[in-house]
Amino acid sequence: MSKAEISRMKPPLVPLATLIGRELRGGKVEKPIVKYGQAALAKKGEDYFLAKPDRERIAGDPSTSFSVFAIFDGHNGISAAIFAKENLLANVLSAIPQGVNRDDWLQALPRALVAGETSGTTVTFVVIDGWTITVASVGDSRCILDTQGGVVSLLTVDHRLEENAEERARVTASGGEVGRLNVFGGNEVGPLRCWPGGLCLSRSIGDTDVGEFIVPIPHVKQVKLSNAGGRLIIASDGIWDALSSDVAAKSCRGLPAELAAKLVVKEALRSRGLKDDTTCLVVDIIPSDIPVIPPIPKKKQTFLSSFLSGKKSQSANKATSKLSAVGAVEELFEEGSAMLAERLGKDFPSNQNPGTFKCAVCQADQPPADNLTANSGPFFSTVSKSSEGPFLCTTCWKKKDAMEGKKPSRSLVAL
What we know:
27% helix; 25% strand; disordered C terminus; five-stranded antiparallel β-sheet
C-alpha cells in the first residue's frame, strides 16, 4: 500500500482549540490541580503571606473547592499586615450571599473583593476557582500570569504615585499634594509622595494617620485560563524592584512551584542584594492529567531572530500588561475605579443583622443613625437616592470624596 493511500485512510487532524471547545461543551473538563511554593528573605520583617489551597464554599462538598493566596507588605509596622492576613478573607466571604451557585459566586467575587479596610499594608489577594482567577490589589505588590504560550500577563496595577498618572490626578483633584521630599537647600529627593503623610503609595489597606487620600479600594481583575493551565507569581516589591515580570517568569520555567519560588527570590537577591523584604508565592494551575507544568521549549536563534528579539526586549514592560494569546486567557472582569457606587452596586448586602447596617468597605456593623450611603452627596439629593445602599460607616464615608477624586463635601448627609 502506497504512502498516499495510507494518508487517505487516516482521519483528518482536529485543531486543539476545537477539541477544547468540544470538551467544554460536553462538561468533561475537570478542575485543575493547584500546587504552590513559597520563599522569602526578611530585611525589616514586615512581609506576610497567606496560602489556603483547599477552601470550600459549601463545607463538606469538594466540588465547591477554591484556593486563596495573598501577599501582605506592611509599612510603618506589622500590625496592619497581620490584621489583614487574619481577617481579609473572612470579610470578603461575608460580602457574598450564602448558598449561591458557582456562577453567581464568581460573578459576585470581584465586587466582594472591594470590601475590607483595616489599618498600613499593601495587599495582592488571589482567589482561584477552577480555571477562573480573580485578583484584587492595592499598593505595589504584583501578580503575573505565565501561560503555556510563554506570554507573561500582568494581573495587577501599580499604585505607586511615581508610576501611576491616574492616581496622581485623583489625589490632587481631591485636595492632596503630590511631590518629592524637600531637603536642605530646596532640593527634591526620592520618589513622588502624597502629602500630608509622605506615603509613596496612593492605595493601601489602613494608613488612617496619613489622611483621606490614601484609599483601600483595590484594582480587581478576573480571567479564565484554557485547560492548558498556567503559573502565577505573586510577590512583594522586594522582588519587582529587582526583576522585571519577564525575567521572573523565565528564571523558573519548567521547575516545580516550591523550587521556582526559591529561585525567583535567589535571582532577585543576586540582582539587587537584600534591600527590602522579599517574599514570593508561585502557584501552578495544572491540568489534572499532567503532573507538572512542562517547560517552554527554547527556540533556536539565528542572527536575524536574535536581532529581532533584542528589538522586542525594549518594549517588554508594555507587553507584560497585555493578556496572553487568544484562546489562552479570557478576560472576564477588570475595574480599578475608586467610585464606590459603581464598584459595589445598589444591591450590595448591607443589613445582615437586625437594626444595624454593615459598612461596605470596612465591614463593621453600625447603628442606622451612624450610616451614610455611598450614593449620598450633592449629586444624590432626593430621599430615595440617599436611602439606597451600599452603606458606609462615618470613617469610610469621610474618605469617599478622596476615593472618587473630588474635593471634600461641605457637610455629611445622615440618613
